[in-house]
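[audit] Reproducing an earlier prediction to check determinism. Same input, same settings, fresh worker. If the tokens differ from the archived copy the diff job will pick it up downstream; this log only records the rerun itself.
[audit] input (190 residues):
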Amino acid sequence: MNKSTVVLVSFFMVSASAFAFSGGPPDGKTGAPGEGTCNDCHDGSGGTTTVSGPDTYVPGTAYTIEVEVADSSAMRWGFEAVVLDENGDQAGSVTITDPTNPQDSTSGGKTYVKHTSAGTFPGTGGSATWSFDWEPDAYVGIVTVYAAGNSANNDGSTTGDKTSLGTWNIDPDDTAVEPASFGKVKSMYN
């Protein structure tokens, strides 16, 4: 292989790696305990990642979770989120309600929600927002949505991008839980 071929091959390898995650980051980059973040591939920090959802949950009810990544100088966006219980295990299930911008994947018993290629909103300034539904299947204590966001400059490389983290805690709805003793008393009179 001559010198110009090596340079050309190196250029294409670097270019391919710069665009490798526009279709979605690898699993486990949410900033949750024991996981990485967008900083594992992108070099800067800044901007904001804001997660919003319900304050409380009841099993069997679907709730909308939103992740917004904002930065006044960014022109492309990315994110990854996961919903975990206090033990760091998957809490409930997620449903993608917008088939264009977010997607999900499962790894290690956890379901990750992340951007698609279209969901990077190339050329859009200011902020980007993604949403998905989460449905708890049981009371598991406090649930946390962990999200990592990437505010990119849309230059096709991983340099000059900014990453940030956001979380949202969801408490079990204690008012919806029937006390065990009430159930026993009720059954005696039925």
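[audit] rerun output stored. Observation attached for the diff report: The chain is about 15% helix and 40% strand.
[audit] end
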